Every structure is written in structure tokens, then in C-alpha cells.
Amino acid sequence: MAVLIFDTGGLIALERGNRVATVMLDAAIADEIEVLTSSACIAEVWRDPPRQARLSRALRGFLERPLDEQQARSCGLLLARSDTDDIADAAVALLAGEQDTILTSDPQDIKRLLAAAGTSARVRAV
Fold first, then answer.
1. What single DSSP character describes residue 17?
2. What are the φ/ψ torsions at residue 4 (nearest 5 degrees)?
3. N or C: which end of the chain has fewer CB within 10 A?
4. Burial class (CB in 10 A: 0-12, 13-18, 19+), 122
5. Please, which residues have CB within 8 angstroms of residue 89's CB and are 6 or more apart in sequence?
6. Contact at 8 Å (CB) between 30 and 22?
7. Alpha-carbon gap, residue 118 to 67, rounded angstroms
């Protein structure tokens, strides 16, 4: 079953009320599609919860995947293979399966990471 994955840029887009991000999230929820993100992405966007009400509400429907010991090591290896340096993007790329869609503001880096991971998930820019 396909899932919708938000990277940091996707979460920022949600917070700002971006139409593409909002429509994709709403459609996923309506179709009972799992919506994922990484704890690394949340760490990058979580700055002022009282002023992030939209993001806070949206995250209630997300499955948040932690960056544990094994995941952290896998991220490091993927960053080395892809010659990139964004830990949160690597964590997102490792969450993705073949049928999944990643919502991002940085499609080039995500595509590079997916290629290095051997995954051909869809990438949607916001």
C-alpha cells in the first residue's frame, strides 16, 4: 500500500497553508493512505508550537518514524553513497518504498538520495 511522506519542506509547506501540500494531505486522509514523516524532519520545523497550530493539527494524523541507532547509521551510509549532507532528507528517503510519494521542496536532493537507495518512489515538489 502506498504512503505519502513529507520531508521538512513538505511540513513547512503545510504550515504555510500551501495548496498542493494541503490537498495531498486531505486526499491521503480521505483515501486512508498512511502519512509519514521522520522525527528528523519534525526537529527541523518545530520551533514555536503556539504559532504552529496548523502544523500541530496536521501532525496528529502522521506516523512519525524515529531516528534510532540503526536508522542513523543507514542515513550516514546513504549520505556517503549519494554525496549529499541532509540527514532529514536521508531519513525520508529511507522511509520510501516503490509506490510511495514524497512531498518536498528539494526534489533534486530527494531524487539523488532515492537513486542511491535504489528506490524509485515518486517525488512531488511544493
1. T
2. -110, 125
3. N
4. middle
5. 7, 8, 104, 106, 109, 110, 113
6. no
7. 20
For the record, the C-alpha cell of 96 comes out as 520510501
Per the CB < 8 A criterion, the answer to whether 12 and 52 are in contact is no
* Spatial distance between the Cα atoms of 122 and 78, rounded to a whole number of angstroms: 18
**From first to last of its 126 residues, what are the pLDDT tens digits of the chain?**
799 999 999 999 999 999 999 999 999 999 999 999 999 999 999 999 999 999 999 999 899 999 999 999 999 999 999 999 999 999 999 999 999 999 999 999 999 999 999 999 999 999
Q: For residue 6, what is the enclosing H or E element?
A: strand 4-6
Q: If you ran DSSP here, which 8-state letter would residue 105 be given?
A: S
The structure's pTM equals: 0.95
| DSSP one-letter string for 45-99 | H-S-GGG-HHHHHHHTTPEEEP--HHHHHHHHHHHHHHT---HHHHHHHHH--TT
Residue with cell 500500500: 1
